[in-house]
Amino acid sequence: MSPRHFADGKLARKLETDIAAIERNEPAGWKDLASHAYRLDGEHAETFAVACAYLLRRDPTIFLRRHLTGDPDALFCGWAAYGHAGHYRSIVDAVYKQRLHEASSEAECESIRQFIMASHKSHQAPEN
Predict the structure, then answer these.
(1) Residues 61, 67, 68, 72: what is their CA dihedral angle, to the nearest 10 degrees?
(2) What is the CA radius of gyration of the chain?
(3) What string of pLDDT tens digits covers the 128 residues of the chain?
């Protein structure tokens, strides 16, 4: 089910276009999606979060991988996605735990822990 099914309007169509670009591995798709992260409010923020959750369901490590490469928007997008992941959270938690176990350095472990803690915060956006 694509994000268009979750909300109507111009933003949903734009997010669907961004997601299609991300799925084609086009860097511009991620840049466009992340540009929505900090300027949305109310129902628009929820539409954005649902779009992020859609990506998380397709690839449980998408935001973690981006965080590990230094992407500053990955924490917020991962937090938004996790908040709307529903029953899929248990799968995401297992994937994150496994990735933490596979970390190759203490710095990588700490970065993964930071991501996990930020994505699990319940009522506030992570600090950047």
Answers:
(1) 160
(2) 14
(3) 444 444 457 778 888 889 999 999 888 888 888 887 666 666 677 888 888 999 999 999 999 999 999 988 899 899 989 988 888 899 999 999 999 999 999 999 999 999 999 988 863 445 55
3-state secondary structure of 42: helix
Question: What does the alpha-carbon distance between residue 30 and residue 50 come to, in Å, rounded to a whole number?
Answer: 15
Distance CA 106, CA 39 (A): 34
Please give the Cα distance from 116 to 93 (Å, whole number).
8
Pair of tokens at residue 77: 């997008």
pTM of the entire structure?
A: 0.80
